[in-house]
């Protein structure tokens, strides 16, 4: 059974009772899929205990309708956490996580301005601030992050190092559906036609063609590319398909 913890003080008590046992932590925004589950399973394998969190963090949404439409599937999520062997689920609310009303903000002023940061103002401030809070509350030895959000992973790892935080940030491989589409909570928001077209994003991204050729092909297929750029031996992309913004990355 996964134990649901809604209060910070309650978690602190439980954490104390775990003594010197190892603890892995997996922060999420819920609507869990196989990508999330792979992080949970890795943490369960590598630690005595695993804590997951579900919190749809309002400060990282620059578009209010994106926040409003974010899928919520808590009953299913709990089932998946149980199947994965997760021990604890931290389910905080907004007031608890922002006692300061978001006066204090963690900002990175270089990488966070590029790629997703250039198109979603304030997004990474929100991400870094909430992850700093969650890491401080969790008190875990390791935190598992997906390479699906490559830029986010780099920024969180950098933050943990810059602030001498005690948690090690562990990168985990990007998990894809059978047709190549990267698992994402937002995939559920695609229309059936868009869902059929969505795997083209990965197919074109991994085609080995020049970036401008890829962009042309994607535009022709009806994607609206936000950015498509090489960064440290990876190719990063964000593109809209209808109203849904998809991100992906490959080695290249
Ligand atoms: P989210 O719920 O979107 O905030 O994601 C929570 C964690 O799951 C983040 O570390 C993501 O990078 C990771 N994640 C999301 N999708 C995938 C995926 N397809 N493969 C691997 N990790 C993922």
Q: Which features does this protein show?
A:
252 residues, 21% strand, 39% helix, binds adenosine monophosphate, 9 strands, alpha/beta, 3-stranded antiparallel β-sheet, 6-stranded parallel β-sheet
Oligomer: single chain
- Describe the largest sheet: 6 strands, parallel
| Cα-to-Cα separation, first versus last residue | 42 Å
Q: Helix coverage percent of residues?
A: 25-40%
Mean pLDDT level: 98
- Bound ligands: adenosine monophosphate
Order of helices and strands: EHEHEHHEHHHEHEHHHEEE
Number of strands: 9
The radius of gyration is: 18 Å
Q: So how many helices?
A: 11
- What amount of the residues lies in strands? 15-25%
Backbone structural class: alpha/beta
List low-pLDDT spans: none
The strands making up the biggest β-sheet line up spatially as: 1-4-3-2-5-6
Globally, the shape reads: globular
Topology:
Blueprint: E1 3-5, H1 8-17, E2 23-28, H2 34-46, E3 49-54, H3 64-68, H4 74-84, E4 88-90, H5 94-97, H6 116-119, H7 123-138, E5 142-146, H8 150-162, E6 168-172, H9 192-197, H10 200-205, H11 211-220, E7 224-231, E8 234-241, E9 244-251
Parallel strand pairs: 1-4, 2-3, 2-5, 3-4, 5-6
Antiparallel strand pairs: 7-8, 8-9
Helix pairs in contact: 7-8
Bound molecules: adenosine monophosphate.
Adenosine monophosphate is lined by residues 28-29, 35-36, 38-39, 145-146, 148-149, 172, 174-175, 182-185.
Describe the structure.
Helix content is 39%, strand content 21%. By secondary structure, the chain is of the alpha/beta class. The strands form 2 sheets. The protein has a 6-stranded parallel β-sheet with strand order 1-4-3-2-5-6, sandwiched between helices. A 3-stranded antiparallel β-sheet has the order 7-8-9. Helix 7 packs across helix 8 (150-162). The longest helix is centred in the middle third of the chain and has 16 residues, at 123-138. It is globular, with a radius of gyration of 18 Å. 35% of the residues are buried. Bound molecules: adenosine monophosphate. Residues 28-29, 35-36, 38-39, 145-146, 148-149, 172, 174-175, 182-185 line the site of adenosine monophosphate (AMP).
């Amino acid at each position: 059974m996964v134990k649901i913890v809604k209060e910070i003080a309650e978690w602190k008590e439980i954490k104390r009772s775990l003594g010197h046992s190892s603890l892995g932590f997996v922060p999420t925004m819920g609507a869990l899929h196989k990508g999330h589950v792979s992080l949970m399973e890795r943490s369960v394998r590598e630690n005595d205990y695993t804590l997951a969190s579900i919190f749809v963090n309002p400060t990282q949404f620059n578009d209010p309708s994106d926040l409003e439409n974010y899928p919520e599937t808590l009953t299913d999520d709990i089932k998946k956490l149980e199947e994965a062997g997760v021990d604890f689920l931290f389910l905080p609310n907004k007031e608890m996580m922002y006692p300061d009303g978001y006066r204090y903000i963690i900002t990175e002023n270089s990488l966070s301005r590029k790629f997703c940061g250039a198109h979603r103002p304030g997004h990474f401030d929100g991400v870094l601030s909430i992850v700093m809070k969650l890491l401080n509350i969790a008190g875990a030895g390791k935190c598992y992050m997906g390479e699906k959000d490559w830029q986010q992973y780099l920024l969180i790892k950098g933050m943990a190092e810059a602030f001498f935080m005690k948690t090690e940030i562990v990168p985990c491989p990007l998990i894809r559906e059978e047709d190549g589409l990267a698992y994402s909570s937002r995939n559920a928001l695609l229309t059936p036609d868009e869902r059929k077209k969505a795997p083209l994003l990965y197919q074109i991204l991994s085609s080995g063609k020049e970036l401008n050729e890829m962009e042309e092909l994607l535009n022709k297929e009806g994607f609206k590319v936000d950015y498509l750029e090489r960064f440290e031996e990876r190719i990063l992309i964000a593109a809209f398909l209808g109203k849904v913004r998809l991100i992906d990355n490959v080695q290249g």
